[in-house]
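Reopening: Ferrochelatase still failing for me.
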Amino acid sequence: MDLPAQTVPAPAASASRKRLAVVLLNLGGPDAPESIRPFLVNLFTDPAILRVPGFIRPWLGRLIAWRRTRPATENYAILGGKSPLLELTIAQGQALEALLNKDGLNADSVEEVKCFTAMRYWHPMSDETAAAVKAWGPDEVILLPLYPQYSTTTTGSSALAWIKAAARAKLEVPTTIICCFHSHPGFASSTAEIVRGAWDKARSELDPAIPLRVLFSAHGLPESIVKAGDPYQWQVEQTVAGVVARLDLPDLDHVVCFQSRVTPQKWIGPSTEDELERAGHDKVAVLVVPIAFTSEHSETLVELDVEYREEAEKLHVPGYFRAPAQNSHPGFIGALADLVRHGRTSNRTLCSFAGPRQCPKNHKDCPHAALIGRLEAMPGTPVERTARARTAA
Ligand SMILES: C=CC1=C(C)c2cc3[nH]c(cc4nc(cc5[nH]c(cc1n2)c(C)c5CCC(=O)O)C(CCC(=O)O)=C4C)c(C)c3C=C
Ligand SMILES: [Fe+2]
Ligand SMILES: [Fe+2]
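Support: Ran it again with your exact input. Result attached.
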């Protein structure tokens, strides 16, 4: 596969010039119709996603992927047979790289920053990217998930995949993992700016007599994963509270809901579809805000823009509007730059937007409780080396 953003010249070693590789972690999406099935197989055979005994997983995962291929193919056909996620993630990386190189990271040191992309379920995946990062020869690596809220199924899974790939590539440099930024002030403000713009536009198009309700719609999760201790739902609620506080819309009618249920188990709710039904019943228009995706992809462009819009019409919802995802919004890229700066100076292997653990104790799958030990115990990995160096210091 051609990876223009990651084919980089070999390092021109210089003692005074430090190199920082920022690896953007994202989910990935098929790049052609024939990639849809193998992409889904990668997704459904991930132990973080399909929590069944290991000997059943390859069979069951393939079966679920096979069943999902048809609806997924129909969805991706609307987008020309592929996901836009890679292009949008590369664009975010380019904007972040330009900003970090322009503004610098520390007043007292001159550094060169390069952004790379590692996708979890489709190319470029961690092994390819770890090799590209190694070839560039950084002094330090920062892993930056494009998921604001931590879930074992997303950031947790990607971080583990990266650490294993980095060990295979013998990429032995200090590595910091930014685990979440659900309540980062810059992230909340830039999201509020986007939502406020969409709100003002919707209001200007809507009959003033019709009330408008904001549906903050996040990707759902099976309830069993949340009950097992995954902090994702709690973190989504924190994001929404932070964004609403910055909207300057007193008494805003809003709700947090969850979309994209793809397995038969019980998923967390309320579902976005149920909220559309309630809006139809209450005769209020809706502004749907994707709150757990930072770029457009199949679930915003197809599920929100096509399927739920049609559903809203059927349910006689008197108006349907959708706020865009962050993509390369300057405020959002500024927030990512701040996370990188903070991660570098935190002196932590695992760093939230504010440094230490943010999740209340009952979320036992918070990475500060559940992931850090596993990462540090992986022999020969960059994280283990960072941990040892930090312990020694
Ligand atoms: C916050 C983000 C996400 C969480 C949490 C998440 C959990 C999760 N996802 C599935 C199954 C599928 N997800 C699919 C696509 C997809 N998922 C996310 C994000 C989260 N997933 C994104 C950004 C994308 C889109 C990629 C793209 O198309 O550009 C898909 C494939 C599409 C489809 O078939 O509709 C599946 C399947 C599960 C089971 C799960 C938690 C257990
Ligand atoms: Fe998903
Ligand atoms: Fe946490």
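The CA atoms of residues 196 and 249 lie 9 Å apart. If you still see a failure, please send the error message rather than a screenshot.
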